[in-house]
């Protein structure tokens, strides 16, 4: 067992944070040998109970759950900051040409190493990740994640139409490859497989049907895709499926809406779509820096909350502009204020933080497993230095409440705040 002393932030419920100004987090093995939080609370109360356990002290620092990124593309590391007139030209001019390179295992391995280091440097300890359409790219990413004992879900992109040579796959082989990758990687250490149809326009009916069949056969694996991101994309889907009630309903028809299915964006939905997300247990990955960068639109928080489906935050790198959860939370705040022109709301700091930790974990079907530090959780955490910059030191010293403190970190924070990222199964990782 090992204990960590610092200020500690964790969640007792949706958007309900607890802040122990002088706290203790005790980590040790559970019955299965996983390193989990054994206790969390005030140092003065817990220290006598764990008198034998060695304590590492981080004076002036905040321990918080590692962040959970619900949607990110590792082959788009170098696509960040590529300008385009919206989603479809961006895919054609930058993204697809770039993803071609991941047919080479060496190149995939080199980018995977950088990518995972960058996640950890930014305090992200769990991510649901797109690879490219090449199985080699999945192997490279999982191998690197396994080295760090990360909780990471990923999958080979399915895209057998409307894409150029070099990234387009072949229907039958793509499904054979997907099943082989599930069998090789799903449930190995902390890794999970995600069946990954890119989006409706890039998948034939046969490929979507095959993806749905695999999803039914392997209910424990994740599904990840994109939906209702961009007006031109939606018009394209309407042409392809004129009979469909909506874009989202195409995925429903192929059996691709269920718990552990995660759809990025979910911007241009109607209430019937939102009810469908809720009734099927499907989650949305809200990607505000990407949606602002590609001018895709604004996620409608008020309607989402009325409908009651699960959602959480995501970077969507490389449509997204930053790996930093602080940048993503701030962008989510800006978007909340826009409120689709009707109901501007100020998302509370605890709500934003929860959406990128325990709330995102819940949306992934991993509540009580990652994204929190309550007893029983796999104790991945970050050590935050609230004095990492002169302005942060000044601003956080003046915070008169937890919300003021968290909001100062969200507005002024970036990778400089993350002093250390600790992966529970592996010890210190950076
Ligand atoms: N829709 C289909 N593919 C992509 C992608 O790579 N990024 C984003 N943002 N949207 C997509
Ligand atoms: Fe995406």
Automatic annotation (TrEMBL):
The keyword Membrane is annotated on this UniProt entry: no
Gene3D superfamilies from the UniProt entry: Metal-dependent hydrolases, Urease, subunit C, domain 1
Cofactor(s) needed: Zn(2+)
EC code(s) of this entry: 3.5.4.3
One example GO MF annotation: guanine deaminase activity
Function according to Swiss-Prot or TrEMBL: Catalyzes the hydrolytic deamination of guanine, producing xanthine and ammonia.
Protein name: Guanine deaminase
Lineage summary: Bacteria, Pseudomonadati, Pseudomonadota, Betaproteobacteria, Burkholderiales
